C-alpha cells in the first residue's frame, strides 16, 4: 500500500506538471516561475536524474522569494524518500497486521488461526528463546546492585556474574547509563577484536571497530560517506536485501545491479561483476563500492574461498570499497561449507590496504537478538583522515545503545569450555542451529515438491528463495489487480493461509522470473502444518489459473 | 583536530583545483575533462552551492567513463560529510581523552588528577545513579525467567515485578529480543500516549508516537524528509545544539539562523524570526521548519507560555513545521517557570492541524539514561500520505532498541503514590533535581564573579552558557594559534584544570562575542573544587593577557 502511495506521488508529479506548478504557485511569487522553466530546459546538461528528481529540483529552485511556505505534502517531501522502497515491511505486512487484528476481534473469521511471519529474519518473534547466558549478563548490567546481594548467586550462573563484573569494570565509572565513546566502549571493542582474531587467525584492532545499533546504521553511514550524487554507484547483488537499495536511494546514489546466478546455486561470477561495472562506467557512473552478502540474503548461498579471493582481487584492481555483509556468519547449515570473513581472505592474500568494511549484528546467528539492536562494523584499509570522518559521523549520534554493545561483545566471546554456563550455552546454540538446518531442509523439500517451483538449498542465513513458474493466467490476473505477479501470489497465500512471505520483486530478480522469500524460522512443530497449508494453497492456485 | 582536517580538505579543494584535477585524472579518461569544465562554467545558473560542493559536483560529473575508481580520500568523500561539524565531541574531547590516557600511564604528571567532562549532558558518566525502579524493570525484562523464581521477590520491588509482567504482556510472544512494529511496541506507545495526556490535559494518539534510539535519529529523520536541496532551509536558534546544524549539513539543507537575545535571558523574539525568515526568502531559500529548543540547549531558558503562542502563530501563518526539542521537559529549576509542551499550547489555541513534531529522550530529565538510547517523537498535523512516508523511513531501520522503548514508557509513566517503589522513586528523583538546581546556582554565581564574565540563570536543561569578554591580547594569541578565541580559552582551561567545556563557536553566537557551554552535572561535592580551579585559572589567564 505504501509502495502505491509512492507510485501515486510519482504519477502525480510526472503527469500533472502543469497542475502541480499551479498548485505550488499559490505559495510562491510568480517572478520565480521563469527561472524554474529555465531550469527544466537545461537540456545541454547530462540527464542524470529521474524525472521525479529533476522536476522537484526545479521546484526547489522555483520555490524562492515566496510568501507562505507550501504545506508538507508528497509533492514537497524529499523525493529521495519517496523513491525509497522497503519490501520486507511493505504492503504485505500491512495486510498481515490487518488480518491479525481481525483475528483478535473476531476469532474464527479466517481459514487460519494465526499469522506466521515468515517475511523477516526475526527468530524470537516466532518463539525462539534467547541464550540464557547472554540475558543473565544483560540483566546484571542493567541492575548492578544485584551483584551486591547474596540471593543473586542462586539466580545467576557464576560465569555470568563474573562476566557482568568484567563488563562493568570496562566502563568508565561502571556507568551503563552513560553515553560511551562514539565508537563504543573501549573494553568491549577489545573483546570483539579478540573474538575476530580467534575467528580469523589474523589480528584485529579495537580502534577499527565501530559499535552500531544493528547493522543497518553502519550501512547507512557508509552510503552517506561514499555517495556524493546520483553519479556515484554501488554494486549490489540481485537479489539483494532491500536495506541496500533503500539506503542508496535515500542517499541519492545509483544502484548498480549484478545478478547472482540461480542456476549455479546463486553463484557470484566475477565476469558478471566486470560486465556490470563496465556498463555503469559507460553510463558515466563512478562505481565506488561492491556489496557482498555472505551468507546470502535472500539467497542463502555461502561463498567459496576461491570465489571470495576473486572478488577481493576484483575490488583491488578496480579501486572499489568492499562492503561485506557478514551478519549470517554463524548461520551455516551445509556440512561442506564454511564461513570465511573477507578480512581473513584479504589478509591471507597479503592485502592489508584494501578498503573493507565488515558488518556484524546481534540480530542474526543462533541468538537472533533483533530487539537489542546491537552490531558493529570493522573498518580497515582507509587513511587516518578518512577514518576521522567516520568517527565524526558516529559522534553526531553520540553512541549506540550500551545493552547492544555489551551483547555484541558477548556474541564475539561466548562461554568457553570449563565455564559454568558452557554446557547450557552449547546445547542451546547447537539445538537452535541444528533445528534451523532441519527446518531449512523440510521447507526446501516442500517447495521443490510443488508444481512449477524450484528452490535452491539454504546453505546458510535464514531464508529460502524459491522460484515460481506462474501460469500466464495468473500473471494476467495480477496485471489486472495492478500487482507484480509474485506480490499477487504472496497476497493470495497470506489471505488463504496466514503465511507472510515477501515477493521477489522486493529483492530484485531477473526480469520475467518470479520468486518469494520465506524465512526458515517458524518453530519446528509448526513446519508440518505450514507445509500442508502451503501445498494446499499452491495446488488450488495453480488449478485456478491453469491455461 | 577533526575540525581542522575538514578545514584542510576545504583548502585543498578550494586552492588546488588544478593539482586536484590532475590527481583525480589519473583515475579517469581525459575525454571527460571537458564536460567537467563545462559544468564548472555554468555561470548562468543560480549559485546555490558552496565552493566545495560545486567543485565536487563537477568532479562527480567528470568522474565518468573511467577505468579504476579513485581511492577513498577526503577529496572523494561526500562533501556534506566534510562540511558537517559536531563540537560537543570535537577537538576539545580529543585533547581530553589524550590527557586522560596520560594521567593513567603517568599519574601526577598534570596539575589535576582527573578529567571533568562538562562538555556533554551525560549525567551518569559523572556519577549520577540510575533510578532504581527503572533498572529493576529493565533487568526483569532482559531475563524474564527471573519472574518464575521465588528469590526474585526478595530482590525486586513488587511494583517493578508487576510492571515487568505488564510490559512483557504487551509484547507479542513476550519476546524482548524480537524486532517490534517499526514505530515501537503498541502497548508501550499506549502507555506513552497516556503519559502525554496526563502531562498536557489533551489526548495523545499512540499511532502518532514513533519510538527512536534517543532523540537524534528522530531529528535526522525529519531533516531527511523535509530537505530536498540546499534551497530548503530550517530556522534554528543561535546558539543551538549542534545536532541541528550537523543534521542539516548532512542532508544538504541550509541552516537559517535566528538569534536568541542574551540581554533578555536568551529570549526568543518573533520579530527576529520574521526578520530572518524574510531574509532567507529573499535569498531564494524555502524555509520549511522552525526548531525550538525548550528548555534551551545550550542556553537553559524556559519559554513563557505567551511566547510559545506567538511561535505557534508564526509557524501557522508562515506554513512552517514546528520541530519542538522538548528533551529537557523534566529539567526545570526556576520556581516561577513551568514547562508547557508545544502540543498543549497548540491544542489550547484550538490548532489541531499545525504540523508539529515533539522530541523526547530518556537521556535527559532526572534519569539521564543516555546509554540506553531511548526516546520518541510525537508527530501530529500531517496528512495520512505523508505519515506513511515517515513510517516507511522508520521501517528501513526496522525498530529502535527494545530496552530503550521500555524505558521511554517508564519515563512517561513512573511509579504512582501507593506503589511500593513510589517513595524511593520520588526521593531519588527529587534529590537529583534539587541538587541540579543547587549546582546550577553555584556555578552561575561562580561564573558571574569572574572578571569579564556574565552568565544567565539556568532556568532549565543541564547547561550554563557564560559570556566572556576576552582581552584583545588573548584574541590575538588565539589568532596566532589558529583557534577561535573561545576555543583557545577552553583548551587552556582544560590543560590547566582538567575541566572540559565546549567553546561557544560550536553552538553559534553573535559574531564578536565569546562563550562556552558548561554542564551543571559534576556531583555536588566536586563543585567547590571546580569553582576554585576555574577561578584560579581565569585570574591567571586574564592577568597574562591584560592590555
Automatic annotation (TrEMBL), chains A, B:
Keywords: Aminotransferase, Pyridoxal phosphate, Transferase. It comes from the Eukaryota. Its cofactor is pyridoxal 5'-phosphate. CDD domains: AAT_like (cd00609). It is an enzyme of class 2 (transferase). Its EC number is 2.6.1.2. Pathway: Amino-acid degradation; L-alanine degradation via transaminase pathway; pyruvate from L-alanine: step 1/1; Photosynthesis; C4 acid pathway. The keyword Ubl conjugation does not apply. InterPro entries: ALAT1/2-like, Aminotransferase_I/II_large, PyrdxlP-dep_Trfase, PyrdxlP-dep_Trfase_major, PyrdxlP-dep_Trfase_small. GO terms for molecular function: L-alanine:2-oxoglutarate aminotransferase activity; pyridoxal phosphate binding. Pfam families: Aminotran_1_2. SUPFAM superfamilies: PLP-dependent transferases. Residues 173-526 form the Aminotransferase class I/classII large domain. Homodimer. Belongs to the class-I pyridoxal-phosphate-dependent aminotransferase family. Alanine aminotransferase subfamily. This is alanine transaminase. It comes from Lactuca sativa (Garden lettuce).
Amino acid at each position: 500500500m505504501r509502495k502505491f502511495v509512492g507510485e501515486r506521488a510519482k504519477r502525480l508529479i510526472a503527469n500533472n506538471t502543469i497542475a502541480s506548478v499551479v498548485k505550488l504557485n499559490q505559495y510562491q511569487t510568480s517572478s520565480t516561475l521563469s527561472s524554474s522553466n529555465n531550469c527544466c530546459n537545461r537540456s545541454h546538461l547530462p540527464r542524470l536524474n529521474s524525472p521525479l528528481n529533476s522536476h522537484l529540483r526545479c521546484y526547489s529552485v522555483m520555490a524562492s522569494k515566496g510568501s507562505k511556505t507550501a504545506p508538507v505534502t508528497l509533492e514537497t517531501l524529499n523525493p529521495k524518500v519517496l523513491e525509497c522502497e522497503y519490501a520486507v515491511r511493505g504492503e504485505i505486512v500491512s495486510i498481515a497486521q490487518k488480518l491479525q487484528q481481525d483475528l483478535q476481534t473476531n476469532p474464527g473469521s479466517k481459514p487460519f488461526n494465526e499469522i506466521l511471519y515468515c517475511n523477516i529474519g526475526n527468530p524470537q518473534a516466532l518463539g525462539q528463546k534467547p541464550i540464557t547466558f547472554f540475558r543473565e549478563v544483560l540483566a546484571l548490567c542493567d541492575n548492578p546492585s544485584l551483584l551486591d546481594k547474596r540471593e543473586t548467586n542462586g539466580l545467576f550462573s557464576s560465569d555470568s556474574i563474573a562476566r557482568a563484573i568484567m563488563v562493568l569494570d570496562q566502563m568508565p565509572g561502571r556507568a551503563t547509563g552513560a553515553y560511551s565513546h562514539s565508537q563504543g566502549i573501549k573494553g568491549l571493542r577489545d573483546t570483539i577484536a579478540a573474538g575476530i582474531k580467534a575467528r580469523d587467525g589474523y589480528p584485529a584492532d579495537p580502534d577499527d571497530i565501530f559499535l552500531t545499533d544493528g547493522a543497518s546504521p553502519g550501512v547507512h553511514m557508509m552510503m552517506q560517506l561514499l555517495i556524493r550524487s546520483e553519479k556515484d554507484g554501488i554494486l549490489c547483488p540481485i537479489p539483494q536485501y532491500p536495506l541496500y537499495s533503500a539506503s542508496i536511494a535515500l542517499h541519492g546514489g545509483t544502484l548498480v545491479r549484478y545478478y547472482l546466478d540461480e542456476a549455479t546455486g546463486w553463484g557470484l561470477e566475477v565476469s558478471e561483476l566486470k560486465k556490470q561495472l563496465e556498463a555503469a562506467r559507460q553510463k558515466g557512473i563512478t562505481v565506488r563500492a561492491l556489496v557482498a552478502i555472505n551468507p546470502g540474503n535472500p539467497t542463502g548461498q555461502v561463498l567459496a574461498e576461491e570465489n571470495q579471493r576473486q572478488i577481493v582481487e576484483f575490488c583491488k584492481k578496480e579501486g572499489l570499497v568492499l562492503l561485506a555483509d557478514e551478519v549470517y556468519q554463524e548461520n551455516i547449515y551445509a556440512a561442506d561449507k564454511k564461513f570465511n570473513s573477507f578480512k581473513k581472505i584479504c589478509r591471507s592474500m597479503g592485502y592489508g590496504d584494501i578498503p573493507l568494511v565488515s558488518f556484524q549484528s546481534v540480530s542474526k546467528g543462533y541468538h537472533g537478538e533483533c530487539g537489542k539492536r546491537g552490531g558493529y562494523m570493522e573498518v580497515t584499509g582507509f587513511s587516518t583522515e578518512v577514518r576521522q570522518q567516520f568517527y565524526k559521523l558516529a559522534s553526531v549520534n553520540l553512541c549506540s545503545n550500551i545493552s547492544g554493545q555489551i551483547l555484541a561483545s558477548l556474541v564475539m566471546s561466548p562461554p568457553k569450555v570449563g565455564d559454568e554456563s558452557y554446557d547450557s550455552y552449547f546445547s542451546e546454540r547447537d539445538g537452535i542451529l541444528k533445528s534451523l538446518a532441519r527446518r531449512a531442509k523440510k521447507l526446501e523439500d516442500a517447495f521443490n515438491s510443488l508444481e512449477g517451483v524450484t528452490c535452491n538449498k539454504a546453505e546458510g542465513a535464514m531464508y529460502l528463495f524459491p522460484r515460481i513458474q506462474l501460469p500466464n493466467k495468473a500473471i494476467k490476473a495480477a496485471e489486472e489487480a495492478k500487482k507484480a505477479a509474485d506480490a499477487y501470489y504472496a497476497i493470495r497465500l497470506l489471505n488463504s493461509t496466514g503465511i507472510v512471505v515477501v515477493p521477489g520483486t522486493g529483492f530484485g530478480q531477473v526480469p520475467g522470473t518470479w520468486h518469494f522469500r520465506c524465512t526458515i524460522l517458524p518453530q519446528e512443530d509448526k513446519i508440518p502444518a505450514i507445509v500442508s497449508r502451503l501445498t494446499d494453497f499452491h495446488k488450488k492456485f495453480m488449478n485456478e489459473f491453469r491455461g
